[in-house]
Amino acid sequence: MAVTMSLTSLLVCADAPAVQVLTRILEELDIAVETCGDLRMAQARLEDRRFDAILLECKNETAALELILHVRNQTTNQTTVVIAIVSGSNDVRQIFSKGANFALYKPLSRERAAHSMRAARSLMQSERRLRPRIAVEAKASIAYSGKEDVPAALVDLSEEGMALRTGSKLPPACKVYFQFSLPGNASLVRLSGEVMWQDSAGRAGIRFADVPQVSRRVLNNWLQANVTSLPEPEMPGSPEVPVIDDATERLSAGLGLLSVSAGDRRDLSRRRCCLGVEVYRPNISAPTRCTLIDVSSGGCYVESSETFPTETPLELVVRTENLKLRILGKVQSMHPGYGMGIKFTLRSDEHRQKVQQLIECAHSESRLSI
Is residue 292 part of a domain? Predict the structure, then answer.
């Protein structure tokens, strides 16, 4: 697997000390950061690229509000997490009403800002997983260092990445350049991407790096036209995420989650969170330390660079300041290098009570002030 930053951010701020503090925190959280000190330049960048987060200084509040509205009215960055950098003179309620998700208060405390960005990162990852990946069959041509016109076949596609099959092993540490046409569209899409994972069967997950404006328009139009044809979900697991079939799920670029049937959605309220969890396998005393990023009464999703085969029985241990919870489950889905969907094994009222306590912990975590 390629070691690369999977999340991206645009830091729009002219305050050098604040930029220095936030850049270091973002990089420590494996969030790639681009900096820009001018709001008009930032708007131009947002026309061409999608970012998982925008950190926006609100010293010029009127201009900042206009940029937030512009982001929320865009197709490309509509669900981007917006983090406002504010001071005592700002109308924070107004900033939130226009679409900001979080606020960082100046002067910035490194410790407080780091805590806030960890919570924001969890939301960024959740928003990324909620974007549908659409199955597609199309031929592609790849070029990279020393290679030209390497054939490949697209498997699925989203706003920011794709899965494909190729007979050649892709380089993990350089840009790969693609061109392809989508079904029903004669326009040629040209873009570059980074390899997020690949396996011995020739499958690979790609995160888009640079997408020209014309190609971005073609991609967005095709995705919008085809997202309405996705089938209704019929798999057990966590709610509020689109379902894809087993083959597509295994091929997706590490961005999938457990899913639920439409009938079960009302009963399984998923909570986003960011909690440390120790995962134990049978007969292995050493835990795998993971991050719990969402939970429902039926299951949860944990981020982990180490994943286990589906149906592997597990014991999850979550420690908080006031309690220690042990919950049984088994692997429902796994995404190598990214994480696992876990279905709880509920054999008694005591087990269900522990899951409810975990959900309450997640709810408390999500309400922490930023």
Answer: yes
